[in-house]
Amino acid sequence: MIMGFDLATPWLIFTDLDGTLLEWKTYSAAIARPALARLRELGVPVLFCSSKTASEQRALRQSLQIRSIPSIVENGAAIIVPDAAGLPTGDWPPASGEPGRKVKVLGMGGDEVFARLERVRARTGLALRGYRDISDQQLAELSGLAPEAAARARNREYSETIIDQLDDDQWQELDREFAAEGLECRHGGRFHTVTGSGTDKGKAVRAITEMYQSAYGREVRTLAVGDSANDLPLLEAVDRPFLVAREDGSWADLGLPQLERVTGRGPHGWIEITNRLLREAQCDELAPA
C-alpha cells in the first residue's frame, strides 16, 4: 500500500541532482523552480543527495534560494547540516568552506581514497584517470560544465571520480580490486565515483531522517526522487521512492517494491511528481513547465 502525501505529517523530500532535479545536458534546475518554491511554501524540506561535492551543492542551493536545509554530498560520504536547521549535531566539526554548517563524515577522506586508488592502478596497469588528473578546462569539455562549475566538481573531499570509459569485464575486475582496498565504485550516469566501502546515500538519508524525528519529536515520512542505479540505496531508504525517466525516455532497471515511475524526463518528472503530491494534499497544482 502506498501512503498518501498528507501534510498533517512532516515530510522530507530527498533528491538526486544530475538527470533528476537538473537537466541532463544543461545542468539547469529552471524547470523545477516552481515546484521547489511551492514545496518551500508548504514547509516541506527538499534535501540534495548526490555525487556532487559540497562546493557544487552550495552554489546550487544559493541559486535556488534553499536555506537551512542539510545536504548529502559525494554519494553519501558526508552529511552537511546548517546550524539554522535546528537539528542535533552534537560535537560535529565545522564544515570546510561552509560557515555556520557542521559536517559528519560517513566515508573516507579524499586523500586516503586517492592513495588506495593508486595501488589499484599499480596492480591492474589501468590508467584510471580521475578528476585529480585533469584540469578544470578538460573537465568542462568532457562534461559540458562551465569552467567555474568544473572547478567546484573537482573539489572532491571524500571521493574520486573516474572518467575512463571501460568495458564491463574491466569494471568487474576493478570492483574486486576496489573491494580489496576497502573502496567501492558506483556509476552515476556519465562517470564512476569511488568512495570508501559502505558509503551509500541510504545510510545518510536514514541518519538525517532520525535527526529530524528527534528535532520534531514525532514521526517523519520520507520521499525520494532518482533516475539511475546509483540512486537505489537512496530510494530503498524512504517511504515513497520515485523514479523519473532518463533522457531517452526509459527508466533505470530497478527491482524495488513500491517504486513509483513517472514518465517525465529529469526535472519534467519533478513537476509530475510535485503535482501528484499536491493533488494528494489537496493543494493547487503547478502549471505545466
Can you put this structure into words, describing what you see?
With 289 residues, this protein is an alpha/beta fold. The protein has two domains: 11-106 and 200-280, HAD superfamily/HAD-like (Rossmann fold, 3-Layer(aba) Sandwich); 110-196, 2-Layer Sandwich (Threonyl-tRNA Synthetase, Chain A, domain 2), CATH 3.30.980.20. The chain is built from nine helices and eleven strands. It has helices at residues 33-41, 54-64, 110-124, 136-143, 147-154, 168-180, 201-216, 232-236, 267-280; strands at residues 11-15, 46-48, 71-73, 78-82, 101-105, 160-162, 183-187, 192-196, 221-226, 240-245, 260-265. The strands form three sheets. A five-stranded parallel beta sheet has the order 2-1-9-10-11. Strands 3-4-5 form a three-stranded antiparallel beta sheet, covered by helices on one side. Strands 6-8-7 form a three-stranded antiparallel beta sheet. Strand 9, helix 8 and strand 10 form a beta-alpha-beta unit. Helix 4 crosses helix 5. The longest helix is centred in the last third of the chain and has 16 residues, at 201-216. The two termini are 30 Å apart. The mean pLDDT is 93.
Note the topology:
Elements: E1 11-15, H1 33-41, E2 46-48, H2 54-64, E3 71-73, E4 78-82, E5 101-105, H3 110-124, H4 136-143, H5 147-154, E6 160-162, H6 168-180, E7 183-187, E8 192-196, H7 201-216, E9 221-226, H8 232-236, E10 240-245, E11 260-265, H9 267-280
Parallel strand pairs: 1-2, 1-9, 9-10, 10-11
Antiparallel strand pairs: 3-4, 4-5, 6-8, 7-8
